[in-house]
Amino acid sequence: MKKKISLVVLTTAMSMMLLTACTGNNESANGTTQPVNGNGSTKVKTLRFATWDTGDALKIEQDIAKKFETNHPGTKIQVEAYADGFDQKLAAGFGATNPPDVMYMWDFPTYHQSLEPLNSYADGDKDLNKDDFYSGLFNYATIENSLYGIPAGFTTRVVYYNKKMFDDSKIPYPKDGWTWDDFQDISKQLTDKAKKQYGFGVRAENDTYDLQGFVWSNGSSLISDDGKTINGYMNSSETASAIQMFGDMVKNGSAVLAGGKGQQSGEDIFKGGKIAMWESGIWPLESFKQAGIDVGVVEMPAFPGKPVKGVVAESALSIAKDSKNKDLAWEFIKYYVSNEAIKMRVADLPVRVSVVKELKKDQDPLYKPFYTMLQRSDNTPAFLLNTKWNEINRQLSAAVESVVHGGNAQDTLNQTVKESERYLK
Amino acid sequence: MKRFIVYALLIFCSLLFAAPLFWAVTTALKSQSELYLFPPKWIPSDWKFINFVNAWTIQPFNLFLKNTLIVTLLSTIGQLISCTLVSYGFARFEFKGRNLLFLVVLATMMVPWEVTMIPQYMEFNYLGWINTLKPLIVPSWFGSAYFIFLLRQFILTIPRELDEAATIDGASKFGILVRIIAPLMGPALILVGVFQIMSCWNDYLGPLIFLNDQTKYTLTLGLSQFKGMFGVDMQSIMAITCLISIPPLAVFFFAQRYIVGGIAGTGIKG
Amino acid sequence: MAHTYPQTVGKQSASLGPRRKRRWGGAAPYLFIFPWIFGFLVFTLGPLLFSLIISLFDWPIVGKVHFIGLGNYVEMFTDDPLFWKSFGVTLKFAALFVPLNIAVGLGLAILLNQNTRGNAIFRTAFYLPSVISGVALAMIWSWVYSGDYGILNYFLSIIGVQGPDWLNDKNWSLVAMVVASLWGQGSMMLVFLAGLKGIPKDLYESASIDGAGKIRQFISITIPMLSPTILFNLITSIIAAFQQLTLALLLTGGGPMKSTYFYAMYMYENAFKFFKMGYSAANAWFMFLIVLTLTFLVFKSSEAWVFYEGEMKRKPEKTTKSVRKGRSA
Fold first, then answer.
1. How far does the signal peptide extend, from start to end residue (chain A) (predicted)?
2. What is the CATH number of the domain that holds A187?
3. Residues A305 and A334 both lie in one domain
């Protein structure tokens, strides 16, 4: 296969020589923008760092890169902001064996074969101070005992609420330890259809990853712990009732269906003061504040008599297997997760215990619930348990979508299990 | 009465097409707290022109503008020259395999980029063109199927008698193209130029795949920096959208009279 | 494209002597089309063949490559409901979009072709949507279509109509996409407008002297004279319909309930969400052949209805005759 590829490339390249001769003038006009090409130059070592962040977060990352450059003379960190096109760019990069050296990463089951195992780096380097990280974060970047990424940020999921809307309806703010029954009651009371105001917003398209928190909290899971069985898990009555609850809230009008990808999102409606409660990670917190919403944060409600469980979404930094600058890449990662750099990244939840203690984040009512939820996150998400989870998830997502559009959860999930079991063989 | 209906329709349609853009402009000018109000506020209470400045300066947009100008200019020149030659070849000659080749031209329009993207990336990578503007410029010097097709259709409507007369006067095939066909094609060429400028200006995928370093980015890539995986900066997107729409709109405004005015000139020929 | 010029043309212009003409005629056309041939060989053919090759492989972008012969094609046709589902969605979209696109583009062009004041302004306004880049376009549409907070339903509620939640209602989402796609038809309108302006005025004048009404003139002059343009727009519309991806990707993500899950979206997800590059290439080749066949059929049919002025005299049809008369008058 590889041979064939290079043959195609070679023939095209031969003709290309001819071509470059033909378009000489065109090229010289272009010459002013000629790059200092990455690995080629002898003096300055260039390290390519790919991020999905945008806006202010990107700006901060560029600042961190600059600081690293001053600390390490002779290096250049080329921050490559792929934004929404992150997966496409990585696909092209890995496909042509020209990936960035360091990249943000969360989907380890998909990418791990192209990533450098970091166990020896992480264990062999005292400067990293691995024990200072919140325990458990490393598990999300570990596949078959190999560590493929160093945690850089994480979020758990909480419920945001609009204090003003609660005050207007004279409803007390929700408190930790509340239940889904409380939640549904409040949502009903805060809904006023005439004003197009709702207690809660249900996403039209859910990431099933996020739903796992509810399923675990109801005492079930999407897949067995050994990753081999879904029948009796994905379609258990606990799983079904957790998902059915959201479909019911849309049906009985106490929640609005918030648009799918790219549409007016639940966050936008929350910022407009038209939904009172919204369930999400840390991402929208800053923008809620900027929109002038007096926002409160509370941990997830519990199913009566059952412990609340959380789900962690983690972002980590990884090194490409094909990178030619692995040691420099490691230095950069280490700096990126150092106390100094973590403090610069104000929008991320710090991953180090020492930083959290120092900044007193765990005492700030807006941030504390994220850390309590972190302590409640000890289940393993399904995508780490089965390599074919992507395929199963395609079916499951469709099922969840049909439930929030009015379908019956138990029937739909039974059907999904039937259709997905072939992926388990 | 008929005039009145025509004007009413024109104005109605114009509003239909322009209203969303009007919203984009006002959104860009709004303060955060007014963004998501319902019923929507058409006119912001406080005009935040600073939003435009902030959006333009948070990333090096001047640089992005320069890159975009380079790509647009060079690729448009290339497209005009190459497509004129090729379309003339297809429209005015009979040769072996012409129909088959033309079908191949058309077929290249139908190739989905999803599958050719990675091999193309490999090829440019092999040439050392990744992270340069070359992949965005050089291919357009070899003609795009869409424009070749468009120009061919146009040349076919030019009466052959004109060529024949020139041939009798001793003009070569190339001479006919330069002296007879190309001047008559003026409007169509301007049309192609406008289309190429638009598509180049707004191209997102090409720059995304082939450029890495921010100093090479084009405007659309800069724009996409406001839409991340976890959040959208709506004001900035709208502000930049408005700003970067101005040059193509200006081009269009000045070009349109030639596109629609000039072609009528071919009417004289009969 | 299947127009073969009768031999008479060659003979007429052969004043340079048959031998010289033949030699010249032999190499010249290839010289003219050389840039395209070269570009095709270098930039398109390689990647195209590559995609054909990988369609025979299990080719995840990360991980090991296996040869599986026609396995991808077999799986696609026999074991993948999403393949048929998305193909159906795309056919439905194309059936709605292509005729509407032609009709709207032509209608707007005719409207702009009236001699009105402020023509330049109107033309620019009509073209406005075509200069807006994709990211902003999706946001604009989500603001228009949102069920409770959208501007469309806001206006509908003023006249007492309760609009649906357009993009979240599987009965309306595809229609909403068609409308959104039509909104950006500026280039089609422009091509039509250029074509309309190219129709000599004296044709209409002599036709009205002959007593033909507006509708008659439209049918016997405008349509045939515009037929090369119509052919162009028809084919590019078909291709555009089958490749429609951006709006779905940015606006609905294929939902709700896969009602806007276009074939291009399916292909895109297989490639970049599930990293099944080989499978996606197989998807692509299937679509490629379908569109190619459609285009070929349209071209074949065009011999019957497309009329090129450049070769007018060799088409002694009724309509062309009347045109001829008009022109020589």
1. 1-21
2. 3.40.190.10
3. no
The strand pair at A158-162 and A150-155 is best described as: unpaired
**Candidate from C94-103, C189-198, C231-240 with smallest mean pLDDT:** C189-198
In this prediction the pTM is 0.86
How does pLDDT run across C34-67, given as a tens digit for each residue? 999 999 998 999 899 999 999 999 998 888 899 9
Pair (A307, A417) in one structural domain: yes
Q: Which residue of A has its CA nearest to B205?
A: A85
Instruction: Answer yes or no: do A294 and A408 share one domain.
Output: yes
Helix (H, G, I), strand (E, B) or coil at C108: helix
Q: CA nearest C151 in B: which residue?
A: B40
Beta carbons within 10 angstroms of residue A14's beta carbon: 11
Which range of residues forms the domain containing residue A131? 45-155+313-375
Torsion sign, CA atoms A373, A168, C149, A347: negative
The reply to whether residue A55 touches residue B225, judged by beta carbons under 8 angstroms, is yes
**A251 and A139 part of one domain:** no
Same domain, A162 and A247: yes
Compute the mean pLDDT over every residue in chain C, rounded to the nearest whole number. Answer: 82
Domain C72-305 class in CATH: mainly alpha
What is the distance between the alpha carbons of residues A349 and B82, in angstroms, rounded to a whole number? 54
Rounded Cα distance, B131 and B214, in Å: 9
Residues C273, A110: Cα–Cα separation, whole Å: 9
Q: Measure the CA–CA gap between C5 and C311, rounded to whole angstroms.
A: 8
Question: Domain for residue A224, yes or no?
Answer: yes
The CA distance from A326 to A337, in Å, is 17
Cβ–Cβ under 8 Å, residues A212 and A381: yes
Number of domains in chain A: 2
Cβ neighbours for B15, distance < 8 A, ≥ 6 positions apart: none
A287 close to B (CB below 8 A) = yes
Q: Do A208 and A336 fall into the same domain?
A: no
Average pLDDT over chain A, rounded to an integer = 87
The rounded distance, in Å, linking the Cα atoms of A394 and A210 is: 15
Question: Which of B17, B107, B266 faces C126 most closely, judged by CB atoms?
Answer: B17
Start-end of H helices in C219-276: 223-243, 246-247, 263-272
Tell whether B228 lies on the interface with A, counting CB pairs under 8 A. Answer: yes
Which of these, A247, A250, A241, A266, lies nearest to A188 by C-alpha position? A250
CB A200 within 8 A of CB A224: no
CA distance C250 to C247: 5
Task: Based on the fold, state whether residues A263 and A179 are members of the same structural domain.
Answer: yes
- CB-based contacts of A206, cutoff 8 Å, min separation 6: A397, A400, A401, A404
- Which two tokens mark A96? 């042509």
